[in-house]
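Thread: "does anyone have the structure for this chain?"

Original post by V.I.:
We have the sequence but no experimental structure in hand. Need at least a predicted one for the grant figures.
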Amino acid sequence: MRFIGNAPVDGEVRAIASGALATGEAVVVNSDGTVSVVAGSGSPESIGTQVTLPASGTVNYIAATFDSNSNKVVASYRDHANSNYGTAVVGTVSGTDITWGTPAVFKTSRCEYHSAAFDSNSNKVVIAFRDEAGSDLDYGEAVVGTVSGTSISFGTPARFNSGRTVRTSIDFDSNSNKFLISYMDQGNSFYGTCVVATVSGTSISFGPETVYASVSSNYPTTTFDSSNNKFLITNSTGSAGVAYVATISGTSVSFGSPVTFNSSGSNYIGAAFDSSANKVVIVFSDGATDPTSGAAIVGTISGTSVSFGSKTTFRTGGVVELNAAFDSNTGKVVVGYKDYIPGSDYDYIGQLISGSVSGNSISFPDDPIDFTQNYPNSIRLVFDSNSNKIVTVFRNEDATAQGASIVYQPDSLVTNLTSENFVGFANSGYADGQSAALNSTCSVDKNQSGLTAGQTYYVQTDGTLGTTPADPSVVAGAAISSNSIIVKG
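Reply from O.Q.:
Generated one for you, tokens below.
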């Protein structure tokens, strides 16, 4: 038998209570030899039921953002059933459910390559997109949206590029109160290009277009680092993943030298700013493996440059369509992606996985969770800071290829229980600092209730007992009656 503190009396062990103990409570030993009740806070991982976007048929080119003024999620998409018009809809999260309002058209023409961000200064949503206006023009445009209740209304779209525009990406600079839009300028050899945008009321204006990469630049991402008041622009040059630090001054933008974050092919790039670690996390499909794996890398901005740690592979084989969002409630970066699973209905399924940044590294200690079995595309993640949930919006490649959404809550449980520190149950009530008697290893605790004789029980992270293991898995013991348990041996 283990001895903690004073010598045992009548088959018990004694230790000094750190905090009050109630009769029958599960107890752990602390690093200083005192004992405390098992306690936990937060919520376990959970995922809601898939909800279809309110479109009458197929959608594509999905984007999403969170309006922190109205506490609503805004999703935009191309609505095939309505002449491919640019459309947006407002979503309200409650628990792990989401309800969508009535869709609103923001452009009565064929709209592609949507991206969206929220202006916390003017409390407006801005959607950037490509307007297929005909005559092989495909202009780059943006529009300002105002959320009211469960509806959204729009100003007049304005043009930022009068040539063919591909794969827009937008984020908001809360320091200068400007947006930065990055895109591939197909009218200029697919060069990576950026433009600064300013909202005034329901209108938007633009500074000069500025080339940051004089090479074909696919999968551009635009991520604002609020600790340095800089943007990190990333893209794929076909042979490598490259990043650029961008600085807004007035209506212009300047760039530092390019830095390679992955020397092999890097596609389906996504990024998120971790405001706890003050790092940018880039996720991508890593061409160093075949089939491509899902990888992540941590970037640290200093001045006009960025440095990177070592990349972390979080999923091997066939990972594409990546996107990421930072959950400031759990301090985790959540990554969504499409994963190749041979033998599933569509061979590809949608998964979510959470990573934690430490220094210049990111780790993914937990297994991914499936959010759909139906071949998702246009996966977009957004963090709802009102409900502390991640909303995933995507296109489901089922029979109708409809837009869909699902609410996800990463594991936020914090507990003092470990796989080694459980010592038993308090046999009476004790105040903080008292010498407490504990029913420990191989003794019988008779202070429980509702047990089933012959059943093994596990200590849960909040100190209760359950018949299934928690994380960590800790055996409490075997019940011998409804109120008695033989403490684990």
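V.I.: this helps a lot. Residues 1-10 have pLDDT under 50 and may be disordered.
O.Q.: and DSSP finds no helices and 46 strands in the chain.
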